[in-house]
Amino acid sequence: xxxxxxxxxxxxxxxxxxxxxxxxxxxxxxxxxxxxxxxxxxxxxxxxxxxxxxxxxxxxxxxxxxxxxxxxxxxxxxxxxxxxxxxxxxxxxxxxxxxxxxxxxxxxxxxxxxxxxxxxxxxxxxxxxxxxxxxxxxxxxxxxxxxxxxxxxxxxxxxxxxxxxxxxxxxxxxxxxxxxxxxxxxxxxxxxxxxxxxxxxxxxxxxxxxxxxxxxxxxxxxxxxxxxxxxxxxxxxxxxxxxxxxxxxxxxxxxxxxxxxxxxxxxxxxxxxxxxxxxxxxxxxxxxxxxxxxxxxxxxxxxxxxxxxxxxxxxxxxxxxxxxxxxxxxxxxxxxxxxxxxxxxxxxxxxxxxxxxxxxxxxxxxxxxxxxxxxxxxxxxxxxxxxxxxxxxxxxxxxxxxxxxxxxxxxxxxxxxxxxxxxxxxxxxxxxxxxxxxxxxxxxxxxxxxxxxxxxxxxxxxxxxxxxxxxxxxxxxxxxxxxxxxxxxxxxxxxxxxxxxxxxxxxxxxxxxxxxxxxxxxxxxxxxxxxxxxxxxxxxxxxxxxxxxxxxxxxxxxxxxxxxxxxxxxxxxxxxxxxxxxxxxxxxxxxxxxxxxxxxxxxxxxxxxxxxxxxxxxxxxxxxxxxxxxxxxxxxxxxxxxxxxxxxxxxxxxxxxxxxxxxxxxxxxxxxxxxxxxxxxxxxxxxxxxxxxxxxxxxxxxxxxxxxxxxxxxxxxxxxxxxxxxxxxxxxxxxxxxxxxxxxxxxxxxxxxxxxxxxxxxxxxxxxxxxxxxxxxxxxxxxxxxxxxxxxxxxxxxxxxxxxxxxxxxxxxxxxxxxxxxxxxxxxxxxxxxxxxxxxxxxxxxxxxxxxxxxxxxxxxxxxxxxxxxxxxxxxxxxxxxxxxxxxxxxxxxxxxxxxxxxxxxxxxxxxxxxxxxxxxxxxxxxxxxxxxxxxxxxxxxxxxxxxxxxxxxxxxxxxxxxxxxxxxxxxxxxxxxxxxxxxxxxxxxxxxxxxxxxxxxxxxxxxxxxxxxxxxxxxxxxxxxxxxxxxxxxxxxxxxxxxxxxxxxxxxxxxxxxxxxxxxxxxxxxxxxxxxxxxxxxxxxxxxxxxxxxxxxxxxxxxxxxxxxxxxxxxxxxxxxxxxxxxxxxxxxxxxxxxxxxxxxxxxxxxxxxxxxxxxxxxxxxxxxxxxxxxxxxxxxxxxxxxxxxxxxxxxxxxxxxxxxxxxxxxxxxxxxxxxxxxxxxxxxxxxxxxxxxxxxxxxxxxxxxxxxxxxxxxxxxxxxxxxxxxxxxxxxxxxxxxxxxxxxxxxxxxxxxxxxxxxxxxxxxxxxxxxxxxxxxxxxxxxxxxxxxxxxxxxxxxxxxxxxxxxxxxxxxxxxxxxxxxxxxxxxxxxxxxxxxxxxxxxxxxxxxxxxxxxxxxxxxxxxxxxxxxxxxxxxxxxxxxxxxxxxxxxxxxxxxxxxxxxxxxxxxxxxxxxxxxxxxxxxxxxxxxxxxxxx
Length: 1482
What we know:
This protein is an alpha+beta fold and 1482 residues long. The chain is built from 38 helices and 56 strands. Strands 12, 24, 26, 28, 30, 33, 38, 40, 42, 44 and 45 form an eleven-stranded antiparallel β-sheet that branches. Strands 14, 16, 17, 19, 21, 22 and 23 form a seven-stranded mixed β-sheet that branches. Strands 10, 11, 13, 15, 18 and 20 form a six-stranded antiparallel β-sheet that branches. A hairpin with a 2-residue loop joins strand 5 and strand 6. The protein is rod-shaped.
């Protein structure tokens, strides 16, 4: 049970006190009414004696009575009605509420935080000894604060309002005060009348109520004298007459009303009556109706007076704090509950303060009244009781014929053998048995009750025990139960505790009252007494069981109070049973609710909620929250109700859909009522649906236009695209690249990469930039946690806007003014659409447990700073919500299809996004700090141009190397012109807008006839297979100008695109060399003509997806011609071998490829003619066929500024390779190749500086083996598609750098392909795709070799032997055969070279000797020559043979070194092929 203010002894003593009736004359009552009090009410605060009282028992032993209290009541001649008692008890409990503003302290019991005083104790399970000691100390502490004042008020009122019954005498009147005023004409006569009235009430048969203790009731005569108006002498004379008539022991002169009513108001007299006027009204009722009405009014002041009295008695305020009171700072339900209760109490206090009590009494009058009660008790009441006890004792002894007094005799009875008591079940139902008033059994009970009232508990116990036996023998069960009850209480109250508390007596009494006598009132009194006694003995488990046993359906209020006390028993145990506490608090709350005690019901549920909260018992939590919401709503605590229903909805509910729908409807109904109370207040926060704030995305700009036929809009950015960090980084790099080119190689410090779509992964640390008049789309992610659909209507964004003019320069401070739509959102006004336009979604349905995004738009009309705060909407449910569950969510997209159930509330939810965690500095790493996330705070900038790009006839599939012509349309859809249009891409070799020559050279008629992308001319048949020359500058095609090759200027007419204007430009595309799917990113960059402070440029993105399939694979090798001299006598001839293979698979529908032209592009070399012997004009390649072509190449004569283009045509049309687009793609491939070699060449700058002279020598030798020749193979492919034949055209590039080294049209993976062959390579590609990660390239940081390789040195001097292939000689005529041989030496370098020829060389192996035989060179065996750059020298030699046979003449050893170098780089110059001669004999 909860702690009480009184101890158990004080409680029981105050529950059973001697009752004294008061009978007043009308004049006397009028005197007391001047103080707004009846006589009984006047003396009540002074009815407790302040000193000990002595009396003697029947054995003449002195007995001390401490702290005696008497009760003085008006005589009421009719018993109280049960209905009136119930109403009184209901009101007492209803008015008594927990005191407000008291902070509950906390202890931890197991996993739960519960109450207690100003100490904090941490405990866990199992309980340790120190915890037990501390808990016991706290339980016995006077500061233990778990009080329930409403229960104490109920208990006190219940015990005082119990009607008197015949089986016991505790509620019978012992004496009667007759009160007469001294101002009456004949007071003595009036006393006589009152005495007769009392006699008539007690002894007349017409009055059965009230009950009187003994027939000879003590009459005490009180003369009431009004000091302020009456004559004191007359009063004294009347009092003297009274003493003579009634004796000094039986009368008293009481002087009151000494104070004059018009005294100064500053004199404060205490009001001790207020706390007593609340107690009950039934005993206070007078026989006069007007007094009864006044008394009834006083019940309204119950709680206020009770609180005051406790403060006056010096008790701590903590007594009003409940152990499980909710924390006030958390905005809990209880705090508001207490607040609301206190307002009604304040009202009652005000009404109470209007009628002050004791206004005419001074402190002296208070002392006189106190003295009067003491005199009455000492001189009148106690002597009367003592005499009555003696008389009863004597009567009982004489009737029983006993020799000794009952007091001594009972000891013998108890010490003797006891007759076993019969069980309840064996006893007959004789509860209706009545004893006559003079029956000796009743006389024993009467004596026991008198002894009990004067605290003589030992004698009382003896009498009760004797009476109990008599009653049980007679089977008078009602009487026996009463005797058992009081015997148990007497045994407990005996000083020194000679015997233990007989709890079984109480058990029997309760069972008898309840089951046999059917008297729940008496059973309840037993339970209240016994539970308090058990609690004082720390028997909380037994007390709880007792309390729970008496709960029944006949009284909800009683059951609620007893269940609540049982719950408190559970937490007061040594090992607190917290869950049992919570469960019984729930039961108590339910019964409180049934009893109409809504506030107490709410309090019980709130206290139980602390135990269930956060433990995963979601269904229990839902039930409690639902009940709290209902009770709060009934009490008009709408905020609390909203909070409780909110908890049901926001927790992950396990309720079925129908129940969730009911919860939602209740919530909306309560919410609607709450908002109607304050229609002008701020918009409340709604709990549903959930918003994932971090998933909010913000998109700046218009939605992308869909494609129209062949016209395809740039992909740009949209909210439908998923975020890709790698792709985002690529776009950022492209933008940085173009900005760097615009700013001459540097990126400005204030550069901010353009971000069209902001999300949780993007960099949101800076304020994003938005353009005026362009929409801002915010995508909000909603999640419906319920199993029923939610319908959001009129959904829009909340924002705040601060206008600023970024173009104007402010010198001083400007006054900033904020605008927003937060106030307007409730419908109280119209939003200022001139600032920011807001788009609303009329209906937005979220199905059960669905996550759905809403895209909301704002249209800024002014420059400034915009802050998006959240969303505002009407939350409602859908009719037939359960049946809609599980339907296709797309149904909800149709506006107006769903019928709301009419219940919707308007509210808001804020978008609060937490930025990324900072982890850069040491301080940030050691603490938790978050950076800003500004995606919802865009800056609206001045007007900027807006570009739209459309692609016409843009292909999705190409052959590798295929050339296709498309068109690009640029449209300026803004109101200001744009300029500086550029496009940047990582793959500039994929497309071209044409070089500067493209405008000057229109397409030829034949090209337009054949729909060719090339510029062509008809060739002369005689010039087939011979080179047609032309030249072009790389500057015309944007190569070598120093700029970035990836950044391409778009050739706009006049370089400006006016508002609303559009322009179409041709764009040539070339399929990438690698097959597969390619994503190619284009970034279009443009600027406004006017320079802005915030936004300098804008970009537009486009991603083209091209699927390429295989076409041709080309290998080429260049080697020096053995014919050292050309037609013009120069020694710079080379042979070019081109190997073309059709690797296309037949699936693509390509029938065959035609090689239509091979062109060379170089500053130093050119193709001269084709040396193919085949007479076929066209070179056709079907699937998997291969063709070999051979060309002769010679050095160019022109300057090195321009590239020489040489076209060898195989058809009847020449494609001019020096014009667009052929030259464009060639130069782009050249630039990408140049970029690769350029990077490598820069890595060793420092090494070359240190070894400059040495490296120059090496470089000269290396240059001999280098060749700068590029081949373009142009082809046509015949494709059959849908029974139509299409002609595709394309070109492949091969860059030849080294003599004798094979080059390929597609460099990657060729190391494998060369080794394995094509078929094996394809198998490897299919089986092991990861092998492409292997690289067979030289690392870039490899230093330049210190010595030239033998292969490079072999190219320094080119040698050639000229001799007859066969020589006839007659060995019979001449034994030695001499053959003239010419050795041609050609210096391949530009430097002067010293050459040494050694003819003494012999074959290294004997096998060579056997095969070819031996011969001898005649003449000089060693020659030393000096060859100038590019010089060809002829040396005449003679070979001598002695036999016929085949001989190898390639035996001379040739050594060479640069003439100005000391270091010799000499190596043997060997021919790769043997020089064989046949010597025949004639």
